[in-house]
Structure prediction request, 409 residues.
Amino acid sequence: MTSRRCFLGTSGALLAVPARSYAAATNRFAEIEGRLARHDLRNITKEDLPTPCMVVDQEIFDSNLRKMAEHCRNTGVHLRGHVKVHKSPEIAKRQLALGAIGVTCATVAECALMSHAGLGGILLTRQATSKNNIGRVIALAKRDATFGTVVDDPLAADWLQQAAAAESVKVRTVVDVYAGLTRHGIEAGAPAIELAKKVDASKNLKLAGIMGYSGGASHTHGWNERMKKSREDLSGMLETLASARSAGLPMEIVTGGSTGTYNIDPEIKGLTELQAGSFVFMDTLYHDIGGKDSPDVYGDFGMSLTVMTSVISTRHSHQCTIDAGNKALLRPTDQVKGRPEVKVENQGAEYGILVWKDGDKDFQLGERVELYPSNLDMSTNVYDRYYVTRGEQVVDVWPIMGRAGASQR
Prediction:
């Protein structure tokens, strides 16, 4: 029987391969899907997977998790890793097993997913203001006393207090202080202190601490410039923290930080925990910000996640078409694994183009090509599972939080 590899390497092979062999390969799809559902992964390889799909290199992924865990142990700063990057309880559980104290979530739905998967120490970092979201926050607090949320407005604190009182529950609450991003955070100093006092005096809210997220620093190019930006952005929050402690306010949690500043913020001696999330996978935008030891490449963590595509047309010289386009979140800043000289271009909803100059390195029809994505959050949001691999072998499948219906948003 002609193998798929031989099929790809043979000129005019489409006509040469027996119909019976081609049909057998086609019919294997149902078998593969059934085995994936049963978690029977024996002899399933990357060649068996649909494209485009997300592939995780387990060796690099595990190394990333271990490195962050070791960093947190050495610095005494806890990890409450952000789940918006991966949206997967399987990944969160692995971080907890290595010493993380919980997870950080951007949406109520992410919190619910993690809570119902049995995880604790969940912190919602986006203030809830709608009746629907406030109600779901209260339900999470009733379910798990370790759950917490944030407020950056006295009115939002009032709404949360009223809802908590109606359900006779006490909600752990963190005051969100401005740290460079105008999208959220109460002004540092007196306004933040007054809000903290209000929360502390509320019967059904428990003041847990303070948050300051310097999102602008996370992707600042160059380690020294990134350190400068982070310290500038966090200065007001840290002054507020000192005032809060002088006033006798409980400050159990001082949370913030990112993958880009994981080895900067602990030196400020203020944060008790990091919200870093992207380090588990990394992407091209992070890869290019430069690290402490390299001005151009941020190599602290390996790039463990790729989007695997197939070459679907080779009719034009020095380029080929792949089956990942706008709907797969293909971007010109994506990079081809193992082929840094190849340029990535968008060509429509379902089509992408790879362009190169060296004619001796043409891609072949049907060849699998892996791309490093530019933005993990956005890319993850359009897929429903990770295929975890060791070499060519698929060793695990992790579901990604679904996107169907209001409860998933």
Notes: Confidence is low (pLDDT under 50) at residues 1-22, 404-409. The longest helix spans residues 223-246.
